[in-house]
TrEMBL record:
This is Lrp/AsnC family transcriptional regulator. Residues 6-76 form the Transcription regulator AsnC/Lrp ligand binding domain.
Length: 78
């Protein structure tokens, strides 16, 4: 499994709806609300044989209320 972090910027007033929809998809390992430019951050494990872009697009990025995302790929853990 490959770990990625995805930050979500939500349309104002939609953060709780977006968070609920993300949890309903049962894709994320952890989900937190954050301060700063983004409203939520999720830790997601993607199967090694899956393309990260396709996986995230199919599983999460079609949720209404998301205005922007930022995906951070991870590499070797120290």
């Amino acid at each position: 499994m490959r770990c990625v972090f995805v930050q979500f910027r939500c349309i104002p007033g939609k953060t709780y709806e977006v968070a609920d929809a993300i949890y309903e998809r049962e894709v994320v390992s952890e989900l937190y609300s954050t301060s700063g430019e983004f409203d939520l951050i999720a830790k997601i494990y993607i199967p090694e044989d899956a393309d990260p872009g396709h996986f995230l697009n199919e599983k999460l990025f079609d949720i209404p209320g998301i205005s922007r995302t930022l995906t951070t790929m991870t590499f070797k853990a120290f």
